[in-house]
């Protein structure tokens, strides 16, 4: 049940970030350019995602510096997966190119969630304390 709640909160955080990234993109597109607008949007919402995942979704109190490093490593890893999926799917014409992002999300969202839950926001001290209390 806890993991299901976390996954729903994780999804809501991702949805919020997607909407905010798009709004920021639209606001900055006209006065700047698409690359800058997307970069700023992604940068701002990645910080929001980090904060919400840390405090609301997984409720960890781990070393923030280590969490940040792991968070962006996970971000990079799932980005590379999505680029790989897009490359393979588009070069082999396995999937309609308009559906590639959806297929990518079906793989990267659960991957990102599992890495976030068990690696990025995993507070081993809390796990040890919970195990000790259960004994």
What would you note in describing this structure?
Helices cover 84% and strands 0% of the residues. It is built from five helices and no strands. The longest helix has 29 residues, at 64-92. The two termini are 21 Å apart.
Number of helices: 5
Q: Kindly estimate the percentage of residues that lie in beta strands according to DSSP.
A: under 5%
Question: What separation lies between the terminal Cα atoms?
Answer: 21 Å
Strands, total number = 0
Global structural class: mainly alpha
* Main pleated sheet: none
The coarse overall form would be globular
Helix content: over 70%
Quick recap of the structure?
By secondary structure, the chain is an all-alpha fold.
List keywords for this structure.
135 residues; mainly alpha; globular; single chain
Write the layout of secondary structure elements.
Layout: H1 2-29, H2 34-57, H3 64-92, H4 100-120, H5 124-134
Helix pairs in contact: 1-2, 3-4
